[in-house]
Give the backbone structure.
Amino acid sequence: MTQIFVVEDNVFQREKILEIIARIVEDRGYSFDLEPDVWMPRDILQAIDDKALPNIYILDIDLRLDQNGIDFARSLRDIDPAGYIIFVTSHSDRIKEIIDQFIAPHAYIVKDETDFQQIHTDIAKALENVKQRENIQYQGQTYHMEQPGMIMEIPYKDILYFETVPRAKKSILHTISDAYTINRYLKAIKTEFEAEPNFASFNSYLINLHHVTEVNRKIGIIKFTNDEELYGGRRIIDKFYQQYSTYKS
């Protein structure tokens, strides 16, 4: 079951946020498990080792602990690359700082201690978005692939990306553990995925956004959950980053 962790070192604010989340989960019947007693970064990193992933992490950017929220988010990405990170901050001007770290959070919430109703609304919206995304991601869709002497059904959730083979009527399908050459143009494959919100088409690739853990525009790479990296030019990566940021928001 998906866990929810709240990382907030202000006791009053942490209790209020926990109260809000508990009410939302109960009212909407979400199958999320709130962990009210595990909130220190080092304890969370230990607690999620044996948990089913991805989890939900609500992080205060301005933690006054051994790590701030941004540093802790980087540590989380190493363990739970597809986890839903929701940043909470009192300073909206710090959002650009987060974006520049390539952490790809799921949402940002600007907290106002005088308006917890707005915080309730924002958290409810973020959790509803997580629920919808999880429902979409695991519906058992498969990609039907026929090759000489072989017929395969590749689960969508196992697909990392497709890429075209230059000057050939071929494409390469990259999965979490394998790669397959397909005797089809990428353009034809893309048409099959037009209605799939987890897949983004750009240039010579069709990418499963759910498996992307990092988009680094400085060095021009896209990193996936299995640590595979896809290299591209700065302009291409910038274009993809816009699609990925929209997907994660």
The longest strand covers residues 2-7. Residues 190 and 206 are 7 Å apart (CA to CA).
